[in-house]
């Protein structure tokens, strides 16, 4: 199978021929069209080494797999070209791991798009091994499009999960760019839970401890948004500082969002953990596509 050179203005999308991957393909095509970028469809196949007694059965298997892969890619390419006739669309068939193929392609792409789970995913599994691995290891931002996100409003706001980590600051700049490019507002959400202030947990709204905690988180939000506001002054920004779980707050906000943006790992994540627990849970619970920004 072939390995093409991937220009940096390309958006990469994983294809496997399943209905579960269709929303990701459609989202990637719209995004590439909107960015005036080209689109690369990547499909990878693995063929296990057969046991000696299976050699007769497996003769010619690789050729059949390659033909099937190319057929799926050709059909996907034709579908994209029919709905986006001006879009440059290329295909790439790869032997090996789908996640490894997309991670490699991400070295020179500006964005990688994948479904939340592929044809081999178990029913009820909201985040597949491929999407999880790509989100954790890709060299550019990754957008995971769950099959239920097909109904996400195209004119909904871009929702940003605010975090004061290096990844969180990069995610904020990415979210501003997405909102500006789409002409949409940005909703910046900061959730906070049990924290001590003055030796007590501020459980009651209206208490001085609660007010002080809210003020500190509001200041943190403004700090994280500062560079984005300067670079994208036309973006309308709404900030929300809410008491509760980050995952639950972002999942609720995702119901009306066109895109949710998070950093790959928050300030509380373990060193070396490439995809934090909050990011992973948001990928599993969001009703809209989720962009994970790591680098």
Automatic annotation (TrEMBL):
Protein name: Universal stress protein
Family classification: Belongs to the universal stress protein A family.
Cited Pfam families: Usp
Tree of life domain: Bacteria
UniProt domain UspA: residue ranges: 9-146, 158-294
SUPFAM superfamilies according to UniProt: Adenine nucleotide alpha hydrolases-like (SSF52402)
């Amino acid at each position: 199978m072939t390995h093409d050179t991937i220009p940096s203005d390309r958006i990469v999308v994983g294809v496997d021929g399943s209905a579960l991957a269709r929303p990701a393909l459609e989202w990637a095509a719209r995004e590439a069209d909107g960015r005036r970028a080209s689109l690369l469809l990547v499909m990878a196949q693995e063929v296990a080494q057969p046991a000696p007694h299976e050699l007769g059965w497996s003769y010619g298997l690789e050729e059949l797999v390659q033909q099937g892969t190319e057929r799926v890619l050709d059909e996907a390419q034709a579908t994209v070209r029919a709905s986006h006739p001006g879009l440059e669309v290329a295909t790439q068939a790869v032997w090996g791991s789908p996640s490894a193929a997309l991670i490699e392609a991400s070295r020179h792409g500006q964005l990688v798009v994948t479904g939340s789970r592929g044809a081999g995913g178990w029913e009820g599994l909201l985040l597949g091994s491929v999407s999880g691995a790509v989100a954790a290891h890709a060299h550019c931002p990754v957008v995971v499009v769950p099959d239920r996100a097909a109904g996400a409003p195209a004119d909904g706001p871009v929702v940003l999960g605010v975090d004061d980590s290096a990844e969180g600051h990069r995610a904020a700049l990415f979210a501003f760019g997405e909102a500006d490019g789409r002409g949409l507002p940005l909703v910046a959400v900061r959730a906070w839970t049990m924290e001590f202030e003055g030796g007590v947990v501020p459980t009651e709204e209206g208490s001085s401890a609660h007010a002080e905690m809210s003020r500190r988180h509001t200041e943190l939000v403004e700090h994280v948004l500062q560079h984005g506001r300067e670079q994208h002054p036309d973006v309308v920004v709404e900030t929300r500082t809410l008491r509760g779980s980050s995952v639950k707050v972002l999942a609720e906000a995702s119901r009306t969002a066109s895109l949710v943006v998070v950093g790959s790992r928050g300030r509380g994540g373990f060193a070396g953990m490439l995809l934090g627990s909050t990011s992973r849970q948001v990928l599993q619970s969001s009703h809209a596509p989720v962009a994970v920004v790591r680098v």
